[in-house]
Amino acid sequence: MKSAYDLIVIGAGPAGLTAAKIAAENGLSVALLERKNSVEEILRMCGMMVVSLSGSYMGERVVLNEEAGLLCFPNNGFSVKYDGPTKDFFTWQMYSPNGEMFRFGDYAANLAKGKAGRASAVYDKSWFLAGLLGECKKLGVQVFTGENVIDVRKKAEGVEVQTASGKHFSGAFAIAADGRNSRVARVMGMNKNRGFYGSVTSIGYEMTNLNLPEPYALHMPLVQSGDPPMLGFVCPRAWNNEGEDTWLVMITNVDPNIDHESLLEMFTKKSRFAPWFKNAKMIRKCGCAGNMYSPIIHPFKDNVIFAGDSGWCQEAEMTGAVMSGWKAGSAVVLAMLEGKLNQQGVQSYLNWWRTAHLEKCDHNIFLKNLYMPVLCNDKEIDYIFSKINFVLPTVLDPYEVPENIGKALMKIMPDIQKERPELIKKMAGFNDLPPEVVLKNTIRSGFNCSFTT
To answer: Domains (ranges, CATH) in the chain?
Structure first.
């Protein structure tokens, strides 16, 4: 078996597959290592949303061209194949514990516009990964499944990667694209200086026969405020084998010690949202868990480049991961062509990471999505939601949502000052308090695995 390559890619998700594809297209020899036995099998819960088709994300205006079977990134100047099923949705709707609701986008108006009015669309991730994998194989990428990477070390000639099966791979560079629970980041000590904000655990089912007020929308009920709070999500799926409308129904909590099965049962059978699920048919159970860290500031060490979720706070989303993989793979190509097998050779990727990720996707803003249910109780949240009785802009970007909510709160602040002045001090914390203060209990209950094992 060949063991020496120009590039070793660790992780065959959207970032890793895109990086391997662009490197192989430009003539590099590439080994792609994947922990799972089947690349396209989706084992963990995923919303499978295209973020975003209704606005900019990381400086890009993504285009889903269904007729051509392409997902396009015009500002970056590339596209990737996707000819699988999709389903449009038209608003992102948030609900208070007792049912007050505000929305990003007018459902009826957006629905009437068709694709021009969609907030975004969902896709089939298995289909997407299978398509990228097929392209990689045609380009000569050597794919090794069932290989769990346990060690990555700098060598004089580049980098060496070791797997649990005892295999060793050497390359000029490696790209770590092994997800938000990146083992490569951990064993290389990349998490030591990252802020830790808690462990997020989600559990849910794919379901049919839901009775939703507006079916083609992303619904996000705040099921229960508290410290930590509990959030629900209902997201459309692109398709199922029977052709039925299908949704992912899940709850998310940031206390890993809580009984999540009981929380899910409470959400679907006992909460005020239970009528949505009265006749629901459960198809498949799924879940996921991961830590929330601040992003890796400098995603390069010992000729290893960190791409996608491996260096992110929570998730880069599929589109962010694809952009990250494309940039990382392209940087390695240029480094090899110029004979700069060091940090200088891949500086273009580090520059992009700083400008497109760190400067545009501030993790402190992302974490503000958790502030309101921690700082306010159920009745206070019901009141705030009831005052936002106007439609907000149609957005899906999780970094843009807190900004738009902030603008809405400023608009209703005179009413709050007059009617509920005691809330003003709490609401000031939305802007003034750092995540280390607001999320102190979330941090305490999490499992911080920052250090090398």
So the answer is: 4-83+124-193+294-358 (3.50.50.60)
